[in-house]
Design goal:
Elements (H helix, E strand, L loop, with lengths): L1 H9 L4 E9 L4 E10 L2 E10 L15 E3 L25 H21 L18 E7 L11 E15 L7 E13 L2 E2 L4 H7 L3 E10 L3 E4 L2 E4 L3 H4 L5 H10 L8 E2 L2 E12 L2 E12 L5 E5 L12 E5 L5 E2 L1 E4 L2 H4 L7 H4 L2 E5 L3 H12 L4 E5 L23 H10 L6 E5 L9 H8 L2 E4 L4 H8 L6 E7 L5 E6 L3 H12 L21 H20 L6 E9 L2 E7 L1 E6 L4 E6 H14 L5 E9 L2 E8 L4 E4 L2 E4 L4 H11 L5 E10 L7 H12 L9 E7 L4 E9 L2 E4 L2
Parallel strand pairs: 5-7, 5-18, 9-13, 19-20, 19-22, 20-21, 22-23, 28-30, 33-34
Antiparallel strand pairs: 1-2, 2-3, 3-4, 6-7, 6-9, 7-8, 10-11, 12-13, 13-14, 14-17, 15-16, 23-24, 24-25, 25-26, 27-28, 29-30, 29-33, 31-32, 34-35, 35-36
Amino acid sequence: MEERITKLFQAYEEIEILESFRKVDFYFYTGKIKIKYLDITLDFDVSIPYNYPLTLPNADNISIIFKNTDLIGITHINNDGSVCFHPDKDDNFERKFKSEIYGLKKWIKDYYLLNKEDDNYTYLIHNILGEKKSNLIFSDNEKKFEKDDFGVFAYSCFSNNQLPNVYDDKKTDILQTFYRIGFDKENEDKWSSNFSSLLKKNPNKGLWVYIESEPLIEDGIRRKGVKTWSQLQNYLPKEFIKNLYDNFKKLNKAFFFENELFILIGYKIPNKVGYEIHWDLIKIPKNALPIDSVFVPVNERDGSNQKYIGICNDTLISWGTTTNANYDRFFGRGKLTSKLTDSRILLIGCGALGSSLAETLVRGGCKSIFIEDFDSVQTGNICRARYDLQDVDLRKVLALKNKLQNISPYINITSIPVKANVFSEMEKQFNQAFDYIFDCSTDTEITYLLDNINFKGKIFSLSITNKAKNLVCVSGENITKHTKNLYDFTGNEAPSYYEGAGCGYPTFEANYNEINTLLNIAIVNINNQIDNDIILDNFIINRTNSMGLNQFLVDSFYYYREQKSNSELYFSLNAELKIKGELKKYYPNEFGGIFIGFKNENVIFVSDVLIPDKFESGKTIFVRHPGSLNDQLTSIFEKSNGKIIYVGEWHSHPNSPAKPSTTDNIAIAEIAANKNINNDSPIMMIAEISERNFHPEFYIYKNKKLYNYE
């Protein structure tokens, strides 16, 4: 390995090996090189892992470490002096090595020689002293600051963990996470009210000072953060130092967390729209104020006649870390549409479907969710709902609320531990409180209630069929009826799983993965509908298995009703798209085909269309011949176990009204009378088409009359 590394470096004329490479521990080969590039000469200590070209075990894409501590402060130099660049991953030793040298040269050119400025601001990196890592998280705050302002802020410890060191189990790492509450009651950080209330249960106090500009040590192209208190003093207002010196010992215990005073240093940093205020965290031990007492001669004293003043000494600053987690950053990697996240949501039912939906809504950035369920968590719920062993016997809404509040500091969760039928004035209360309702109860009593209120917002009633073969989503009016009809169409099997013995009712069978796969597809579609202001009355996600692969088909159905014949028609959106594609091919001639689907008494579903392979077509004529259609129908009938059958006809009227002609009336009557077809009430669609328009009309032939659907 040492010989291989040496030969690769020696292949570059601009690189000289100053110290030979050798294995110094169980992981690294180390050496030292000098590189001369673009009239720049730099030395680097080099560390190469034994598993090269693979990456380091504690880094995503770093393999070779090039280090020079004299470069600290230059852009893309880490606090330990290593160069920060990210070569592509590669399993070819020589090719990966070449890309590493290219990355080093590019850094020298861009940042050492040309002093390139990146589009994104680079935060100051401070040295963290000791094994305790304290991170303070803050959000947006409307308080206005002027240079040299200072005061008191409130924060709360959210987690405080002692964990074994990843690389040395004899050492312990202390990881602390804090959240800023705010500066005063009028200027609190913009967390949700739920989260703010949680933080205020165990508040601490700290000091803040706004210095306006970054606390830097200017050194040519180097941008180093201050390291000592004496360096920081140049940025701190004298009044702040005096206040800290005079009052440090008077601060009560609320100002100390584990005997450390927290100080936030605020300053401006650039962002995409101008600037924002960033905050760095400093910790001062209770017994080690980094300010020395200095005697002031009488002739140099001000009006206060103070004999001693405080001067910051050379103590190293104990830095913590900070994170700006405002809403846009927290959900910057992806969120749901703002039309949903900024709305008030009621979620009914917190079982397998509802608990997962709730978590997805919270992770998607929703801010206000009411969750309703009367039931408690049972052991059988855990395998497919968002609960764990500690939740058993708790109310589902309370267990779920605790989990959701640990996901987002921007969510307000209100739990309703009873059935929705408890509301005495449901219509009024729901319209005042909610914009969207997600019903995951699979309870017809709930859909009865929703059907009988005039809800001004949008309702999505979601349910999964047995064995997770389908997910059904119904919106709008008559949810109960449409859900039943769609379930009949899917051929849903009645739930049959009973947990144990005794009194109870069966539940559907489906595992966690199957449920959430269907649910995630549904949420993508719902989010898209809301974002585009196109709420479909329904959609079905159908899961099939072919050659070991699950396939998912999403379809929606237009709903039509014909009152005289008491007939209901559901027409597939996918079938319509298929028809439009075929008619476009043959325009301006007429064209058509047949409908296949499902029929249950007076309810008809058109699920697909068949295209004839033998036909006559002209501008005012279309005649289809059997061709292969009969064979196709027989095959479909057998594969669906008799569920999918012939249900009717369709054809176009180019540039003419979608009204039945005499020929159309005769043709549909003959079809109804044909014993071989075995459908005495076929439907017929006539589409008025032009180059831009498509207008279908649906008819049903029943009792020797043709009726028009509405």
